[in-house]
From TrEMBL:
Keyword annotations of the record: Cytoplasm, Histidine metabolism, Hydrolase, Iron, Metal-binding, Zinc
Gene encoding the protein: hutI
Function recorded in the entry: Catalyzes the hydrolytic cleavage of the carbon-nitrogen bond in imidazolone-5-propanoate to yield N-formimidoyl-L-glutamate. It is the third step in the universal histidine degradation pathway.
Keyword match Hydrolase: yes
Protein name: Imidazolonepropionase
Cell compartments where the protein resides: Cytoplasm
Length: 408
């Protein structure tokens, strides 16, 4: 693949505050961009653009860094639509439904799970996501957790071992914890970059602070980076534990105390907010304003899973964050791109500049404001190297590919 010159960019969001309008988004107008292989080779004024092997004209569309979805559970079979309907009729979420997805996922063949995962990757790219983190956690046996991570590793480098999702049906809590921190961790660590734990004392199925600490300590000793599902259903110990242990991210952060906010503001742990969960569980949204105003780093992700957030749409998440969480459109886009990259401790994605990955998302709109301004309208699409996807952004939706590209 040779070099590609992209012109006709209505607005180029770089997330580099050192260029463009001086904002955190580093917005450039009248800019062009050259891609060479999988990297950005040049960004600058269109009038000074160098030659390239091929050219793509975006016709005035906005170009933004590809979305970084730093929290998903994409390896699963079955759905829980009836559980969702019951919640909409007033039932509360407590994690008990995870057992149904575990049963369906264990029953699925490798080929079935691979096909389901491939279709979800196509769905993500079609909505502008170019980097995705994928957790295990619907296997909960050594073999089923290893299988989920192997499949996830076929499509992303960001794989997370979540054996400590819930205590599986029929297992004794202590024995399961010993398995997760022992034999299961040893088998899964070679296939994972991260370890995660559902730390939630308010759920009878999930793990309390001491249990979560044990899981994370074992994961760190095995060389894995740390992530935490924390403070989803109650103001539990997840956030402070994550910050204390230097986790890359603590996710949900729906119920926070003053001490939690202070810890996030002072620490290096990203607060990854997942408003698809509050939408689908009819719960109060996290207080993003309080976190941002305190100086915490905020990311936005889908948490795509069949229980609490069966959406793969980062544009929907951005729209929810703006409308329901009082984030500005700029803050929400940053959190969905550079924020996600920080949550994954990546500096090659989430920001556009020479040498960074050429993970580009084109909007069928003149500016990033339209992501929240046009909720539910499919304006965002990942641009393939070579420019494929521009026509699709203009309206013709291409059918799902049989072999989708992996998401770094
Ligand atoms: O992030 N909270 C725990 N895990 C998932 C939900 C999993 C499920 O209900 O299937 C979450 O919300
Ligand atoms: Fe989750």
């Amino acid at each position: 693949m040779g070099s590609v010159l992209i012109t006709g960019i209505g607005e180029l969001v770089t997330n580099d505050p050192g260029v463009g309008d001086g904002s955190a988004l580093g917005v450039l107008t009248d800019a062009a961009l050259v891609v060479d292989g999988d990297r950005v080779a040049w960004i600058g004024p269109a009038a000074h653009a160098p030659d390239a092997d091929t050219r793509v004209d975006l016709g005035g569309r906005a170009l933004v860094p590809g979305f970084v979805d730093a929290h998903t559970h994409l390896v699963f079979a079955g759905d829980r639509a009836a559980e969702f309907a019951a919640r909409m009729a007033g039932a509360r979420y407590d994690g008990g439904g995870i057992a149904a997805t575990v049963a369906a996922t264990r029953r699925a063949t490798d080929a079935q799970l691979r096909a389901l995962l491939a279709a979800r990757i196509v769905e993500l790219r079609a909505q502008g996501t170019t980097t995705v983190e994928i957790k295990s956690g619907y296997g909960l046996t050594v073999a089923d957790e290893v299988r989920a991570l192997r499949l996830a590793a076929e499509v992303t480098a960001e794989t997370t071992f979540l054996g400590a999702h819930v205590v599986p049906t029929g297992a004794a809590r202590d024995a399961y914890l010993a398995l997760v921190t022992g034999e299961m961790l040893a088998a899964c660590a070679p296939h994972a970059r991260w370890i995660d734990v559902f730390c939630e004392p308010a759920s009878p199925h999930a793990f309390d602070g001491d249990e979560a600490r044990a899981v994370l300590a074992a994961g760190a000793a095995a060389g894995l980076g740390l992530r935490v599902h924390g403070n989803q259903l109650s103001a539990g110990p997840g956030v402070t534990l994550a910050v204390e242990l230097g986790a890359a991210s603590v996710d949900h952060c729906t119920h926070l105390t003053r001490a939690d906010v202070d810890a996030l503001a002072a620490g290096t742990t990203v607060a990854t907010l997942l408003p698809g969960v509050e939408f689908s569980t009819r719960s109060p949204y996290p207080d993003a304003r309080r976190l941002l105003d305190a100086g915490a780093t905020v990311a936005l992700a889908t948490d795509c899973n069949p229980g609490t957030s069966y959406t793969s749409s980062m544009p929907l998440i951005i729209a929810l964050a703006v409308r329901e969480m009082r984030m500005t459109p700029a803050e929400a886009l940053w959190a969905a791109t550079a924020g996600g990259a920080r949550a994954l401790r990546r500096d090659d994605v989430g920001v556009l500049g020479p040498g960074r990955r050429a993970d580009l998302t084109v909007l069928d709109a003149p500016s990033h404001l339209h992501l929240a301004y046009r909720p539910g309208v499919p304006i965002a699409r990942a641009l393939s190297p070579g420019g494929e996807g521009v026509a699709s952004a203009a309206g013709s939706v291409s059918p799902a590919a049989a072999a989708p590209p992996a998401l770094g």
